[in-house]
Amino acid sequence: MTVHLTGVGTSLPDETIGGADVAERSGIPRDVVVEKMGVRRKHVCRDGDDQPSDMCVAAAEAALADAGCDPADLDAVRYHGSEYKDHVVWSLAADVADRIGATDAYASESYALCAGAPVAIREAKAQLEADAPDRMLLVAASREEDLVDYGDPDTSFTFNFGSGASALVLERDAPERALATVRESAAVTEGSFSRDVVMPAGGTRYPASRETVDAGMHALRVPDHESMKARLAEVSLPNFLDVADTALDRSGYDREDLDFAAITHMKRSFHAHLCDELELGERGHYYLDEYGHVQSVDQALATAEARSRDWLGRGDVVLYLAAGTGYTWAATVLEWAGETDDRNAEPVSRPRTITGPGYDP
Asked: Please, are residues 221 and 155 in contact by the beta-carbon 8 Å criterion?
């Protein structure tokens, strides 16, 4: 039994801000924001618009159309995006299932922060192999840009946060519709980082109140920035490479076989160094400086960009590589089946999914 990726969809809010806007809000020079942080622009949500559930519905509809799949044929809908969503203690997955007409699907949620995409694909593959579902829809969204305090330099690594959503359709034994075959995965967690990045209030420890709002406790905070930065520098690259190598090895490959990696957005120099270590060429990766970091949506965004450029060919080895605060590093390998209209013809170009008005980077 084989699990195939048959559809990919993304959704982005129309409103964007550029690197110049981030620079003005944060006081960091524009060149540092654009060149070092890697943010030329990013999509952001208006206060009352573009709820995570709305973006997930739009992404789901795009992915289902890409797969040629009727929502009524879905057996499960799973959300793996940000916990910061329309409501707390609430199933976004169930809401999406209802709104897209997935009448026979059950809904569930999993959470691995920014490592969510490879982890969710790993879990879905295992379930499709072991259980009754034939088709699953994975959806994710983030508007954690709302939680960024541009006046707090200790959280400057969050200044690249953008908004958007993604959806992936996974099916058992669907080679006639396959974009890719899902292979093996790997993950590792360094739990000593679990309290290094938090939104202090809104949970059981500090329930939301007028006092927590007045104290600014509803934005992301780093209690000890220097300690986290020093400890993370020692383990981040080794852990990225560890999960990449392990997932490739479990799939019967090594770095020399890798054709494309969809990588979580990070500062430009680290992205370049990681790509060098993975021996990726110019078309072997896409840097998300037109999006920023959109939590576990990043891998779908990079895939959409690669598809629009015809960078993915039949038989290519694709790596979804991500890391999320906590800290968890995760990777999943896909074997690309080729880009075709009827999945039996020659590869064709797909339209780009990026939208939004012009901007000043």
From this structure: yes
122 and 12 share one domain = yes
**293-318 burial, b if ≥16 CB within 10 A, otherwise e?**
bbbbbbbbbbbbbbbbeebbeeebbb
Task: Supply the pLDDT for residue 87.
Answer: 96
Paired tokens of 350: 């797909």
160 and 21 inside one domain: yes
Report whether the peptide linkage leading into residue 327 is cis, meaning its omega lies within 30 degrees of zero.
yes
DSSP-H helix ranges across the chain? 19-26, 30-31, 52-67, 92-100, 116-130, 210-214, 225-250, 268-277, 298-308
Ranges under pLDDT 50 in the chain = 340-359
Q: Which two tokens stand for residue 361?
A: 């980077």
Rounded distance between C-alpha atoms, residue 188 and residue 165, angstroms? 25
φ and ψ at 185, to 5 degrees? -135, 170
Parallel, antiparallel or unpaired: strands 16-18 and 41-43: antiparallel
What the block records as the tokens of 216 is 């600014």
* Chain centroid to CA 302: 9
Q: State residue 360's pLDDT score.
A: 54
What CATH number did the domain enclosing 137 receive?
3.40.47.10
Domain range enclosing 322: 182-336
Q: What is the DSSP-derived secondary structure letter of residue 252?
A: T
